[in-house]
Amino acid sequence: MRTLNRTVKKQNDFLFSLTALFAASLACSLFTGPSAVPPASSTVPPTSMASSTATIDEVANTQKTSYPDAFSKFFPIPADAEFDPERVNEGDPDRGSFTLRSTAALGGLVDFYKTTLPTEGWTYRYTDANDIGGVTQFWKKDNLYISLQFGYEENDVVVEITYSRIAADALEKLPEDFPLSDKAELTNALDTSWDFYIDQDFGTVTAFYTKASAGWAPCSGGSFGEGDDGGGRNFPPGVTPMPSPTRDPRPVESYCGVLPSQHQVDLYIRPHGDATLLHIYLTSLNLSEAGLPADVPLYPGAVIQSVKPGEVNFQTGTDLETVKNFYVEKLTAAGWTPGDFSESKGISMKDWKKGIQTVTINIISIVANECLVTIENK
User: Fold this and answer.
1) Residue 164 backbone phi and psi in degrees, to 5
2) Distance CA 348, CA 320 (A)
């Protein structure tokens, strides 16, 4: 369990532009109430779930892209629906989105996809309520994962479709010392975040990570917080949202710790009926991954906040002038020559050159005797 340091997080966001890469396709909110659309079931009976991440890896390694062109060209579209040309985003072959607008009843669209997608090889995963008066369904086919958000927008019935393709190497950046249930099915992956569907109950998954995290070191880097899921009416006046699944009332369980490999893991375990959703965010604290020149030292006592190739971010318990003078002394002695610089109240930025190499030292004073520092190797 952990307590987020909101102040440090905001300061880190300002200095380091940390981007939380949470897979937005899993966010959802709750609405309930009688339906004003023709009777239509919004619940799809679950099919058998994948039992191991190995299955996902095997598929990802062998499955060639089924959609060499824009995904939307191959996706079934109801006769009474059309694309919104302002809402098509398919520039990335591995992920994208598009929106349909329709004159049909919302329940009819839900039934269309409930009937059509299984015939085209899609496997149902689960359904959530959403905040636009309908439901959001999640489906999987080979190494593709999609969400279909049914609801109202202004005076239209809409279906917002978001998809992502699971790459063959999607799990390679997840540290080997991170424990993962053998029933965890990868549903989305970015460079430093992963989402899983786990065909196990919340208690079992929580117990697994309570035990696994017991040996993790305390977090020291900037943490990712899971924002609330929004909510509120967002559909035409007089329209009652269709019956929606009841949101699991159990609170999300969260953990934050540093693995032996010096990778900080922010972990969120979200209950979902008999299954569980797992969200993982990774922040490297391993200085070796920055690749800084050997004669560019870390400030003594620095607390590393994040590391990526060519850059390290850390916090010090010392004032700006002391940190600045430390680097002037150490880099000058190591043969580095000062270059461009910029200074203002509470901020110092200076380039240092040596041969073809350039490093930049950025220092920001946050409070008395505390600084945030970035070293970039250009």
Assistant:
1) -150, 145
2) 8
C-alpha to C-alpha distance for 324 and 216, rounded to whole angstroms: 33
Query: What would the mean pLDDT of 331-350 be, rounded to a whole number?
Result: 94
C-alpha span between 118 and 163 (Å, rounded) = 17
Q: Is 117 exposed, middle or buried (0-12, 13-18, 19+ CB in 10 A)?
A: buried
Q: Enter the tokens of residue 24.
A: 């937005």
What residues does CATH 3.30.160 cover in the chain? 289-377
**CB under 8 Å to 149, separation ≥6 — which residues?**
130, 132, 134, 136, 158, 159, 160, 161, 162
Res 309: pLDDT: 94
Residue 86, CB-side half-sphere exposure with 13 Å CA sphere: 1
CA end-to-end span of the chain: 38
Q: What is the pTM of this model?
A: 0.70
**CATH code 1.25.40 for 289-377:** no
Round to whole Å and give the CA distance between 372 and 363.
6
Please give the Cα distance from 266 to 220 (Å, whole number). Answer: 11
Give pLDDT, residue 18.
31
